[in-house]
């Protein structure tokens, strides 16, 4: 299968099956009590190798503590290890001081394991929103090159629907920051922005629609971003007890995701966010 179009960006949010932001879920209740995380990571790394794709792995600090060998394997295979925070807390439920300390803790763990600088961050559940946009200044102070936390949609949990859709340097209180914002990809449906290439959207939409949306973006010279979680490629992994709506969003079509991802990675070119910034935006890394 011939890959077409420009380089897109492949990302994974590296966390366990129980890392979810619902009030009745405490991840510490499940930590260390068994999962198929290592098998999922083996599958994702093998898939990247088989398809010739590089990716950015936004990794929780606690994953670095529990699975140091996995984090080292990600880096050893030439992928980016970036921060997803320490324990999957929602950024907008932290003070800016708590947020900065949380990110700094994760960065220290990941850098110690890989021996390379952590360049980027993605907030759990896209929890950089309008009310805490100024938290990006903390990332700049920590020496980050980019943030990838903003989703230009509006849902019950996250989103800034009118946020810029292209990679840009964000402004906070009228001042342009020194870091890049890499927003999640969206398409227009009936005048509204909707995701198509990650998480629930990736699982929900048919493969042909996703490929059409990526091609459409590429024809305009824009890169699409794919994101998934390890649990999303395995229908046999343990599941949280959730209300019907949340369970549908969290688990719909997990059985078909790996094959869909394989097909899309074989159809388009994918690279990491840092490599994209270096090639397309001249960022010195």
Main β-sheet description:
5 strands, parallel
Secondary-structure-based class equals alpha/beta
Principal-axis shape: globular
Strand content: 15-25%
Nearest-integer average pLDDT: 95
Helix content: 25-40%
Structure notes:
With 285 residues, this protein is of the alpha/beta class. It has ten helices and twelve strands. It has helices at 37-51, 61-66, 68-76, 96-114, 136-141, 199-204, 207-219, 244-251, 257-267, 273-281; strands at 4-14, 56-59, 80-83, 120-121, 146-147, 171-172, 175-176, 180-181, 187-189, 192-194, 225-228, 268-271.
Q: How would you summarize this macromolecular structure in one to three sentences?
A:
The protein is of the alpha/beta class. It is 36% helix and 15% strand.
Characteristic terms for this protein:
3-stranded parallel sheet; alpha/beta; 285 residues; 5-stranded parallel sheet
Mind sketching the topology for me?
Layout: E1 4-14, H1 37-51, E2 56-59, H2 61-66, H3 68-76, E3 80-83, H4 96-114, E4 120-121, H5 136-141, E5 146-147, E6 171-172, E7 175-176, E8 180-181, E9 187-189, E10 192-194, H6 199-204, H7 207-219, E11 225-228, H8 244-251, H9 257-267, E12 268-271, H10 273-281
Parallel strand pairs: 1-2, 1-11, 1-12, 2-3, 4-5, 5-8
Antiparallel strand pairs: 6-7, 9-10
């Amino acid at each position: 299968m011939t890959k077409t179009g420009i380089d897109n960006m492949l990302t994974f949010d590296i966390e366990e099956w129980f890392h979810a932001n619902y009030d009745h879920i405490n991840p510490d209740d499940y930590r260390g009590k068994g999962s198929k995380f290592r098998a999922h990571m083996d599958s994702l790394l093998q898939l990247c190798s088989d398809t010739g794709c590089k990716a950015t792995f936004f990794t929780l600090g606690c994953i670095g503590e529990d699975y140091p060998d996995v984090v080292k394997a990600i880096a050893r295979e030439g992928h980016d290890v970036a921060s997803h925070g320490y324990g999957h807390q929602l950024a907008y439920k932290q003070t800016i001081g708590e947020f900065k300390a949380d990110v700094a803790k994760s960065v220290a763990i990941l850098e110690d394991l890989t021996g390379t600088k952590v360049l980027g961050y993605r907030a759990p559940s896209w929890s950089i929103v309008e009310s805490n946009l100024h938290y990006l200044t903390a990332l700049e102070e920590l020496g980050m090159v980019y943030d990838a936390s903003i989703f230009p949609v509006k849902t019950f949990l996250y989103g800034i629907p009118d946020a810029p859709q292209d990679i840009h340097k964000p402004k906070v209180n009228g001042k342009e920051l020194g870091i890049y914002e890499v927003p999640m990809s969206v398409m227009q449906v009936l005048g509204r922005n909707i995701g198509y290439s990650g998480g629930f959207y990736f699982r929900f939409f048919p493969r042909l629609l996703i490929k059409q949306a990526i091609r459409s973006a590429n024809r305009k010279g824009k890169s699409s971003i794919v994101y998934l979680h390890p649990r999303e490629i395995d229908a046999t992994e343990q599941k949280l007890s959730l209300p019907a709506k949340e369970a549908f969003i969290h688990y719909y079509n997990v059985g078909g995701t790996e094959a869909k991802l394989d097909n899309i990675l074989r159809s388009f070119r994918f690279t990491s966010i840092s490599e994209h910034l270096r090639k397309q935006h001249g960022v010195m890394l």
